[in-house]
Amino acid sequence: MHKLIFFLIVIVFFSCSNHSDNYDNTKNLTSDTVSTSVKYAKGFSITYHNNFRILKVFNPWQGACNVQYQYVLADNPKKVLKKYSKIQIIKTPVKKVVCLSTTHIAFIDFIDETNSIIGVSNIKFINNKNVNKLYQKNKIVEVGYDQNLNYELIISLKPDLIITYGVDNKSVSYINKLKEFGIPVIINAEYLEHEPLAKAEWVKFIAAFYNKSDLANKKFDIVVNEYNKLKHITDTITQKPSVITGLPWKDTWYVPGGKSFAAQFLYDAGANYLFSDDASRESLALDIETVFAKAQKADYWINIGTANKIDDIINVDIRLKNFYALSNKNVYNNNAVFNKYGGNDYWESGIVNPQIILKDLIHIFHPDIFSDYNLYYYKKIY
Description:
The protein is of the alpha/beta class. The chain has helices spanning 2-11, 102-110, 129-136, 151-157, 171-180, 196-200, 203-208, 213-233, 261-268, 288-295, 310-314, 324-327, 354-365; strands at 34-35, 44-48, 53-58, 68-74, 88-91, 97-99, 117-120, 141-142, 161-164, 185-187, 242-245, 248-249, 252-255, 272-273, 284-287, 300-302, 331-333, 379-380. The chain folds into 2 domains: 2-226, Rossmann fold, CATH 3.40.50.1980; 234-380, Rossmann fold. A 5-stranded mixed sheet has the order 1-2-3-4-5, with no helix packed on it. A 5-stranded parallel sheet has the order 8-7-6-9-10, with helices on both faces. A 5-stranded mixed sheet has the order 14-11-16-17-18. The protein starts with a helix and ends with a strand.
């Protein structure tokens, strides 16, 4: 069931335009405020005041329109101006945190704070070695999922913060229930972003709760510089191989929209994405025949679910064996770092390492570049 839910989260995006398009992030700034630089992400903003910070999250679940969450962060909550008293105030830096998504763990690890994690949804799907060690030492416990959270256990942990996410507006019910117990709860929505660097930039959002914005900014700038250097390598490439992604799901084949983050990876890696003419940022639900018509002659085939060998692909539909990429042995999957329970590190640490994913893809599509490079998140399928 977890795999199915995760699959649907990845492939279905019904967002309300761009997340922050309906908001002016600089509105109501006064002389004692400074808006920090959020260059790529559209789903949040950070404003610094003299003694506190205000974080805003925009449209944090699929289909959300004109929904905004605000959090006031302060080392000394008593110094927060009275006009902000009705907003949730969170004392910082946080020391004890519960994470309800593996991507939250990646952000926390990025700023060297995994020791602060005291609760997770399900340890089986987590790849982070330090988190697994802490679990083995009984310093981290499993607290459940969404509507099946173990509230008594969470209360007993006395966390400073719970980091959650929203799939739809039903998420509001368990978020509000946690608030009723007096537990600070925030919603993280990086998965709705449409660019690799935008997803990674949510580390700035998480870092603010740890008073580690400076570290996050410095490390994120390194990621951006490395990513852009790699991107520029492919700018002059004229021979761009055609690429198809995914596998059929029952009678439907979901492919990334032409303006999606997955498509952006392909463009930046110097590839010709076969659905690049599509203007959608969401995944496209197409009938199998439509994809077959375009995909059979694709040079490369990537991101094929949990497949580990060619037979896994053919077992889905025997006709897939006729794809050119398969017969030409140009099939790669993004599950090279994959634990036995189905936890894929591509969707964990890969969120904060888009530069490594991009280098993998460049090496796949243009093997003469970085010829001695070893793939990290990707592997060739035989």
